[in-house]
Amino acid sequence: MREAGRIHACTIAALREAIRPGISSAELDRLAEATIREAGAIPSFKGYQGFPATICAQLNDVVVHGIPSDDEVLREGDIFGADLGVIFEGWQADGAFTAAVGEVDVQSRRLIEITEQSLTLALEQVRPGNTVRDIASAVQGHVEAAGFSVVRALVGHGIGREMHEPPQVPNFVDGGGRDVYDISLLPGMTLAIEPMVNAGGHEVVQDADGWKVRTRDGSRSAHFEHTVAVTKDGCWILTAP
What we know:
Blueprint: H1 2-18, H2 25-38, E1 42-43, E2 55-59, E3 62-64, E4 79-88, E5 91-100, H3 106-123, H4 132-145, E6 149-150, E7 156-158, E8 165-169, E9 190-193, E10 196-198, E11 204-206, E12 213-215, E13 221-223, E14 226-231, E15 234-237
Antiparallel strand pairs: 1-4, 2-4, 3-12, 4-5, 6-10, 7-8, 7-9, 9-14, 10-13, 11-12, 14-15
């Protein structure tokens, strides 16, 4: 999984360097697929439950699962996120980031910063003896203190041989008494932790294509994700550079 994560990190770096006004999300998708395959790995999203691309393209109000297109061109002032997965020798890594396209407004830049910070705070809770609740509380507390909203319809997950494995890893604590919150973190567990944060309300809607999920109120959304392992010493970020 660490090798899958290393390839993932290299792909993220290539995408970050390529993001600029005038490039299309499909061009970024082709770059990601080429980078992954040249490293001897497989893009895990492509073909997963019928998804047609290597990256999920997340432009402005798109939270997750956008399909890249040559007609979707990034413009100055946009924010763009990419979520992607890698399989290496049967083992999975999953991660995401959001970046500014050129110069963006103050709220958009702050949205990106707060979302990334919330992931960092969540990773600090990844250690034996803590629970999923500690991860969720760290994200929610930081995001809501900044005046933003945590998406509740989508959550993180376990990962290993399969992209999605138990347990779910919410980014919020609700009053529903979810059993998942009390799951203890143990050495050897591997998780994909992924705050998804909206500038407006937390509600989302799905497009008619059955894939793209947007903010209901049209506000912008940011997404950061790492695949991590719980070790006796704490958090090992498998998708770190």
